[in-house]
Amino acid sequence: MNPLAQELNAALEGTTPCCLLSDFGKRIFFPKGIIAQSAEAKKLGKTANATIGMTVENGVPVILGAVQKSAPELSSRELVAYAPTAGNPELRQAWKNEIIRKNPSLAAKNISLPVLVPGLTAGISYLSDLFLDEKTTLIAGDPSWDNYSLIAETRRGSAFKQFSMFKNGGFDFEAFSKAVLDEAKSGFVRVLLNFPQNPSGYSPTATEAAHIVAFLTDVAEKGAKVLVWCDDAYFGLDYEDDIEKQSLFAYLADASENLLAVKIDGPTKEDFVWGFRAGFLTFGGKNLTDAHYDALIKKLMGTIRSSVSCASTPPQSILLKALSDPEIEAQKRAFRNLLCRRYKKVRAFTDSHKSTALEPLPYNSGYFMSFHLNSANAEEVRQSLLNKDGIGTIAIDSQTLRVAFSSLDEDKIDVVYAAIYRTAEELSRA
User: How far apart are alpha carbons 170 and 165 in whole angstroms?
Assistant: First the structure.
């Protein structure tokens, strides 16, 4: 094992993160190579800096005029220079400030500085590198986003264990607790919670959220080492008053010394910049020090360095400027209101239409809602909708059909949903 990896492992010795690391997680480190040496030269190389592979003139990266005129308000450094491995430090601090603003329970808690990753999917993949391998299990809801199993199970070889998400119109706490307690017998629990959830569009109520947090804290306090990934991709997009307004991360970040929480979030969904491919990973654990967080971040940086080296610079530059724009919150509110109107129209339709062929899964937030098909096959329904009606939907599995109302203009909602009900009923009778 590389001495730098040994050094990071020693820094984490005795902590829950150290116990949860995968074999790769133990071996990874951030090298004192080109990036680290370039960082030193940036600080101390007053005469000249011949470390980084960029074309520089008078201390500034050169830029083609054709590129510059496409984004005239950004400098060449903001457009074409390499970004630091962990992301623009000003943006990382600005995002941390945003996390705390949106989750006031974190104000007095010591969490890490967020690390920028090239998209939330990449963040999940990096966490899987650090904490999953063939000897581990990741717990997630059923149904869930298909990329979770692709990353955890296919890519990392980890067991992917799902629990039934819903019962009696709400979160199935009984199924969740059974899955967690069964895994806790091994001494380790790794669980992924995605709210608002993809594909169902469900977020827990304040009561359900408190129950989940109390239960996971109790499991940890009884001795299991617990890792909770809070996939908050659609954070803040909630449309009912009883939904918990803060991320579960806000409550889990200092719940127990045996629990490590990770917040996976970013601007792509909640700030409507899908193609930016920019996300953040933030760690939180009771009594973890800045030195512990630094060691975890260096392991994460090694994972980033060994894959994409660093994320794209222009989205970071644009986002940093946007976050300081006084009009951004009003602009986001307008788009959230648009989504809420679409949600309410979908809700009105599904509340007024009953069918033995299908039923909506609980939904109250996010970009999506899904149907459970009682007899027809979801892929057959999808194909029929596409070929006969020209309507695109997603078959998550054989019984789950996802509909992204986020991409449906209001005047098309009734047409689309009427076709879904009709198609499911026709195929159920076939």
Answer: 8
